[in-house]
Amino acid sequence: MTFFTLNNCIILGLILFSIGAYGVITRRNLLVVLMSLEIMFNAVNLIFLSFNYFLYYQEGRELGQYFVLLVIAVAAAEAAVGLAILVTIYRNRRNVDSDLLKEMKG
Amino acid sequence: MNYFESIFAILPILILTGTALIILLVEAFIDKHFKNLISLILSVAGLIFSMYYLICGMKTNATEYFGGSYIVDNMGMAFSLIISIVAILVIFVSFHYITKKYKNIGEYYSLILFASAGMISLSLSNDMMTFFISLEVMSIAVYVLAGLHRENLRSNESAVKYLILGAFASAFLLLGIAFIYGATGEMHFGKISKILLNHSSEYTVTLGSTGLLFILIGFLFKIGAVPFQQWVPDVYEGAPMSVTAFMATGVKTAAFAILIRGLITIFQVIETQTLVNILSIITVLTMIVGNFMALIQDNIKRLLAYSGIAHTGYILLGIIASKVTSPNNMDISPILFYLLAYALMNIGAFSVLIGGGSDGKDLETFDDIRGLGYKNRLLGLCMVVFFFSLAGIPSTAGFMGKFFIFKSAIQSQSLLLYGLSIIGILTAIVSVYYYLKIVVYLYLKEEKRVYERQSVKWNYLLINIISLVITLLIGIFPHIGYYILKI
Question: What is the ipTM of this complex?
Fold first, then answer.
């Protein structure tokens, strides 16, 4: 199992994070943007877990794992609020396209 | 540390959260005519209780609670005090405003209280976990508040922009925290900086400073400094007016609290000169972009958003000055004074804009405020004083704030800060133009038009007079301001 190393796990996490960031920047559908944000949060969770597992778990330090639980809870709350806002937008416009969000300029 | 002492230390936060829940419960059981009044009384009572316990819990020397998660020191207490004052003022400002637009009134008050609890917890946090959780408690409550006006397209847009950009910034912040965790294996600010300073293997330092850079970006996003300021005008313009006042003052104060907490703990790891250089570039950009973009706005809310960006620049200047003078033990009294003055005059200005509106319409554009000084002389007078104060005209709080910031910059005797102060003063002169433009519009009379006198609800008058008195008082006797903040 030489593939399962700290570096590879971090690189996987960073790739996922970049995919998420790319999605947030380029996607027009706000629902997909929210999904991309979830990918970013989960990529960070993966990085946390791999740091914790490879570097500190043997010494009995588990802080990183607890932090992941907090991040999951926060991401869920954020997704709930985000979806609620999208629902209100959909009711007003029948559409959740980010291109239409240009009421304010200047 | 004794468990009960720890509970006592975070009692202000617990009281705020408890009151918010009680308001939600009570709302379900009372008649709808009394909902607004009872929610107002409950939330103000909760805030005053929490302020009382904040003042009781003040310690002369910093004490850590819950194994270092919370720190109670003068700085955190002063920031919490400003936040509580802001929350009380905002709640009074929104008293008549929200009944015009919303049905679920209890939600509004409890969200404001949740957000203030998050802010107070943010300014007392001393640990990555408490810091992240309090930041999100604050932000999520404010996302909802920004989108509270559900039928309004602009409010929707403001909420969704704030949510997506805020979550995007939080993700980068989290990545930074993850890197720092990887480098040190600790979450406590003090332990992190100790490990990064002592065990300087190349791996630890590289990973740690990358993480710190990401965290700095997250902080700068929250305070709205320039490369990360794009969200500020849109979010401020679309949100309901009272929420804009809350965001412009409360959220900014809390974000500065955690930025300064970071600078005196974890950011010590980065060499002071490097940090100062990065922050100087951002400060110059913030002051210039904020002031010059405000010149071309025709919406007053948007103008105040850009002026808020400019004020962020001046506060950052004060932070750089104290960082240069004493890198490890920053003297932040000028910054606190500036934040207090900024909060008072900004809430005052928003209160005039809300109170002067008629038929459920706020004053938003320059045409709306035309002749306001004739319709209601008191509101006109207050508005003039608040905008003089924002511009920094002597005998107002805004002038004293700017004076202390520039004084601390010049006393640090570094060439860089002389340059920054000159740019700051020049951009402040530019800012006088757009602030005075509003004052001119207040007293601009159209030909052959008689302005009817317009009455104003008591709560706007109350907030206006309180803000007016304190603005003038601490502008003329600045030591009273320092006494309020106990520094």
Answer: 0.95
